[in-house]
Amino acid sequence: MSERSESATEKIMSSIMDTIADNLPKQKSGHFDPGSVSDKVKNKLFGRQKTLHGVLGGGKPADVLLWRNKKISSSVLALATAIWVFFEWLDYHFLTIVSFALVLGMVVQFIWSNFSNMLSGSPSQVPRVELPEELFVNIAIAIGAQVNKFMCFLQDVSCERNLKHFVVAIAGLWAAAVIGSWCNFLTVIYIGFVCVHTLPVLYEKYEDQVDDFLYNLLGLLRDQYQKLDQGVLSKIPKGNMKAKKNE
Q1: Is the pTM of this model over 0.90?
Q2: Angle between helices 185-205 and 163-182 (to 10 degrees)
């Protein structure tokens, strides 16, 4: 029985993949939802009515993510890449880099304070380097707000009794766990950072093509799920819960 069930499952999955591969370039977006062509003009994918710049929050962060200023965006991406290269490729550690930076700063201050008197004839006061407390407070508030939003999202998905959303969230966490087993936390953060700084601008450039492709894919997956439901899932016997409760 187990071999037969496995072969049947393989046939169903192969049929789904073959259908997607054969029909995806030929399908139209209207196949996903009849009459949705006019809706797609008004509402973008997932009901988005705002511009992509507005969805990303607007302001300078959105400008950086959408490469409105290429110098700033490329500098941010280059800085993140340099940090990742230092820690991953060159096998530096955070404490090592911090120690080297502090040593370099102390050497510069030592030379400045001791040789400036000899060169100028008057003692030169070395400027104090102090980071503002508001910087750390703002960073902590921003991180805490994002963590709270993520936790609220997971709680909402768990309590809204929507099986599809629940399964998608579980699959996303499982995928994150698998990716985390392949590489360390810093690499995962760097990959996410690169995706955040490249995918939005690519989506903005090829927005219509991506939306059409995703609508076609969702339509095909919906059709295949209906076929699977009618052919397999609907035939699974279900117990009469009401009768059991009455007994």
Answers
A1: no
A2: 120
